[in-house]
Amino acid sequence: MSHEITEHAPAKLNLALHVLRRRADGYHELDSIVAFASDVADELRLETAAAFSLAVEGPLAAAVPKDDSNLALRAARAMAQRWPRHFGPVHIRLRKHLPAAAGIGGGSADAGAVLRAMCRLFGFVPPREELHALALELGADVPACLHGRTARMSGIGERITTLPDLPETFCLLANPGVALPTAQVFGALHEQGGISGASLPDAALAAQPHAAALAEALRNTANDLQVPACALTPAVEQCLATLRGLPGALLARMSGSGATCFALFADALLARTALSTLREAYPRWWLAVSPLI
Questions:
Q1: What whole-number distance in Å separates Cα of residue 152 and Cα of residue 202?
Q2: Strands in 188-237 per DSSP E
Q3: Does residue 66 carry a catalytic annotation?
Q4: Which residue among 25, 141, 202, 224 is the active-site one?
Q5: Burial class (CB in 10 A: 0-12, 13-18, 19+), 93
C-alpha cells in the first residue's frame, strides 16, 4: 500500500445542458454532455495520517473552505465511514487552480479526485454501484467527476453513460470573475419559462470525426441556463461575444450555471493564440487552454 498519492481534478465542462423538468422535491432533471479539460485541474495529494485534515494552497485558495464543509474532506471521511475496514484517515493537500462556484466542477471535481485517490492509496476499489451511490450523496456533479471522461449525465446526475471519445479538440476557458449563484440562475430560468423539456438529440451523442463536426452537432443542443445567466449578469454575454469573435473559434457556450464560458478549437495553436489575445485584453479574467477528454 502506498503512503502518498497525487490525483488531479480536471475542470468539468457542460458541452450541452438541457433542463427537462423540476421534480416535486425541488431537484431538476437534466440531460447533459460533460467533458473534461485535462490540463486545467486542481491537484490533490493524499497521505495516510492519524486523523483527517486538510491544507489548501495555490493561486485560488482564498475562496475555498478549509473546515469540514470542504467537499474533498467530506469525500475522504465518507469513504472511511462507509468502508471502515478498508479506508482510514488521510491528510489532504489541495492546490487550487480552478475558480470556485464557476460552473466547471470546483468542489465536485475535487471530491471525485479524492474518491479515486482513496482507492489507489488504500488499494481497495469498492463495488462500482456502491461507490457511485456515495458520489451522488456528496453532490449531483460528483458521479460525473468521479468518471472523469466524456459522458452523458442525466437524471439529477445519477445516470452516467460513457460516450465515444472526443476528436482532438481544444477548449479555451474564460471566466469574467463575476458571482453567479446556481439557485439564482435556476430561478431566472423558471421566471423566463426557459425549460426546454427536450432530451439531447442522438446526433450530438454520436462519435464525431473531427472538432468541426463536434461543434456542428453541438449547435443542435443548448445550455438552457445560458440565457437566464446572461440576463442576470451581462458580463457573461460579453464574455460569450468575445469568444465567438476569436479567429478559429468553432463554438462558444457557457458551462453549467456559469460564469465560466468556453470556446472550442480544432487547433492547439489557434487556441493558445486566442488565449494570449484575451490575456492582454482582459487581464482580470481567469483564462486557460486545454485539450478535451
A1: 11
A2: none
A3: no
A4: 141
A5: middle
Domains, the chain, with CATH or none: 4-162 (3.30.230.10), 170-291 (3.30.70.890)
Distance between CA 213 and CA 250 in Å, rounded? 10
12 is catalytic: yes
- Apex CA 146: angle with CA 17 and CA 11, to 5°? 60
From the centroid of its chain, how far is CA 155? 17
CB atoms within 10 A of CB 280: 8
Q: How far apart are alpha carbons 34 and 26 in whole angstroms?
A: 23
The pTM of the full predicted model, rounded to 2 decimals, is 0.94
Q: Please, are residues 175 and 129 in contact by the beta-carbon 8 Å criterion?
A: no
Residue tagged active-site, from 12, 42, 96, 110: 12
**Sequential pLDDT tens for the chain (293 residues):** 558 999 999 999 999 999 999 988 888 999 999 999 999 999 999 999 999 999 999 999 998 999 999 999 999 999 999 999 999 999 999 999 999 889 999 899 999 999 999 999 999 999 999 999 999 999 999 999 999 999 999 999 999 999 999 999 999 999 999 888 888 999 999 888 768 789 999 999 999 999 999 999 999 999 999 999 999 999 999 999 999 999 999 999 999 999 999 999 999 999 999 999 999 999 999 999 999 99
